[in-house]
Amino acid sequence: MIGIAGVSAGQSAVPAGKSATGTSTVYVECGALWDGKAEKATPRVRIAIAMPQGKIVSVEAHQKNIGLGTASGSVAHVDLSNQTCLPGLIDTHTHILLQGDITAEDYDVQLLKESPEYRTIVATQNARRALEYGFTTIRDLETEGAGYADVDVKKAINNGVIPGPRMQVATRALDVTGAYPLQGYAPGVAVPHGVELVDGAEEARKAVREQISYGADWIKVYSDRSYRVREDGVLDDIPTFTLDELRAIVDEAHREKHRVASHAMALNGVHNSVAAGVDTIEHGNYISDEDLKTMAARGIWYVPTIFVGDYVARGRAEAGAPVWLKMVGIHEDTFRRALKAGVRIAFGTDAGGFDWGIDPAKEFGYMVKWGMTPLEAMRASTSSAAQLLGIENEVGSIEVGKFADIVAVTGDPFSDVTVLERVDFVMKGGVVVRER
Ligand SMILES: [Zn+2]
Question: Residue 199 C-alpha to ligand 1 middle, in angstroms?
Answer without folding.
Answer: 22
